[in-house]
């Protein structure tokens, strides 16, 4: 696609919606790789922009603006013919690179040089499809467990949050809600954990916490009590991660084994707009015994739906990145640093 004049070739629809370069130049998950089959066109919405995703017969995934340059019809209402996208209005056909190859009303004419779709950069990795609407400034976030055979990988979601994407992320990196929102699973409402002080450092790949220790009566899909030690990271404004080291414990929270297991999660948010999001996660487990993937998904469904129910209630809906609008306690250090980090990056969309 490098021979296409992408920088100047902007759809008129790009004037609407998010204008924040930090987000436009970032990678965003728009679906699971398995969502996109050859032969169909899938509409997706990202940062108030309507896009299409389609997979050509060679297996490559393409993401374009949901717009035909001719008269602005939606390509998502069209279809695939001969491995090309057909616009539903006048039948113009576009090849993999987004070049118009046929104008049926003038089939003998070579389509004009400017008869192009509006393609965006796409990467398929970690079982997700990632899209960048601008000029990608960074590589995709890391997830080293993906290539590590010791880890069982399980995707779950999508979880549709009627909420701001950063609110979803701050909830993911917050440990003091466990005893209340996930009572009986990730904590005990009658005996909430006293959170010991922890630290957060800013690294080249984002924020990283020291271990946050909590007791979990049902720590994962194996269904047993564990002491859990969370290391939280924020890679991007809308991509976070934790690595949870666990040690077997008794029902009172006493560690009963020296061995540590590891449970990690890559947490991605597709910001549909400033107050609507789709969360998709990939867990990677190096635990003994391995639980059945369905059990991991069942548990994730419970946990993330509990999270969604509370996150949807938060006001203001757009996360405040100025700390004075809320009250921060030392136990919220990760969420506090996340706000300041967004502010430092110059994020303007979806925040107040
Ligand atoms: S609007 Fe697409 S072919 Fe005319
Ligand atoms: Fe939670």
From TrEMBL:
Keyword Cytoplasm on entry: no
InterPro entries hit by this protein: ARHD_Rieske_2Fe_2S (IPR015881), Cholesterol_7-desaturase (IPR050584), Rieske_2Fe-2S (IPR017941), Rieske_2Fe-2S_sf (IPR036922), VanA_C_cat (IPR044043)
Keywords: 2Fe-2S, Dioxygenase, Iron, Iron-sulfur, Metal-binding, Oxidoreductase
Species for this entry: Arboricoccus pini
PANTHER family: 3-KETOSTEROID-9-ALPHA-MONOOXYGENASE, OXYGENASE COMPONENT, IRON-SULFUR DOMAIN CONTAINING PROTEIN
Keyword presence, Ribosomal protein: no
Protein name per the record: Phenylpropionate dioxygenase, large terminal subunit
Annotated ranges, domain Rieske: 28-131
Gene3D superfamilies on file: Naphthalene 1,2-dioxygenase Alpha Subunit, Chain A, domain 1 (3.90.380.10), Rieske [2Fe-2S] iron-sulphur domain (2.102.10.10)
Gene Ontology molecular function: any one: 2 iron, 2 sulfur cluster binding
Regions that span the bilayer: none
């Amino acid at each position: 696609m490098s021979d296409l004049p992408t920088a100047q070739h902007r759809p008129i629809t790009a004037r609407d919606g998010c204008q924040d370069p930090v987000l436009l130049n970032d990678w965003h998950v728009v679906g699971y790789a398995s969502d996109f089959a050859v032969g169909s066109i899938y509409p997706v919405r990202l940062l108030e922009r309507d896009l299409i995703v389609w997979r050509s017969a060679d297996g490559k995934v393409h993401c374009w603006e949901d717009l035909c340059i001719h008269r602005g019809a939606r390509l998502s209402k069209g279809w695939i013919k001969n491995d090309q996208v057909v616009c539903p209005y006048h039948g113009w056909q576009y090849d993999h690179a987004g070049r118009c190859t046929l104008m049926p009303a003038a089939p003998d004419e070579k389509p004009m040089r400017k008869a192009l779709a509006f393609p965006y950069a796409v990467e398929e990795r970690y079982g997700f499809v990632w899209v960048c609407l601008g000029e990608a400034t960074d590589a995709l976030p890391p997830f080293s467990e993906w290539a590590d055979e010791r880890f069982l990988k399980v995707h779950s979601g999508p979880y549709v949050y009627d909420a701001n994407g950063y609110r979803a992320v701050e909830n993911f990196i917050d440990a003091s809600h466990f005893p209340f929102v996930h009572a009986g699973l990730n904590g005990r409402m009658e005996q909430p954990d006293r959170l010991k002080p922890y630290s957060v450092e800013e690294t080249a790949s984002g924020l990283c916490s020291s271990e946050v220790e909590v007791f979990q009566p049902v720590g994962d899909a194996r269904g047993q009590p564990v002491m859990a030690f969370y290391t939280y990271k924020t890679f991007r404004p809308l991509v976070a991660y934790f690595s949870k080291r666990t040690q077997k414990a008794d029902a009172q929270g006493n560690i009963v084994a020296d061995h540590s297991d590891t449970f990690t999660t890559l947490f991605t948010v597709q910001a549909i707009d400033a107050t609507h999001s789709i969360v998709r996660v990939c867990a990677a487990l190096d635990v003994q015994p391995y639980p059945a993937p369905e059990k991991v998904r069942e548990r994730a469904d419970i946990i993330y739906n509990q999270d969604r129910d509370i996150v949807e209630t938060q006001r203001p809906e757009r996360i405040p990145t100025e700390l004075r609008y809320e009250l921060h306690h030392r136990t919220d250090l990760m969420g506090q640093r996340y706000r300041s980090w967004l502010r430092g990056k110059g994020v303007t969309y979806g925040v107040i």
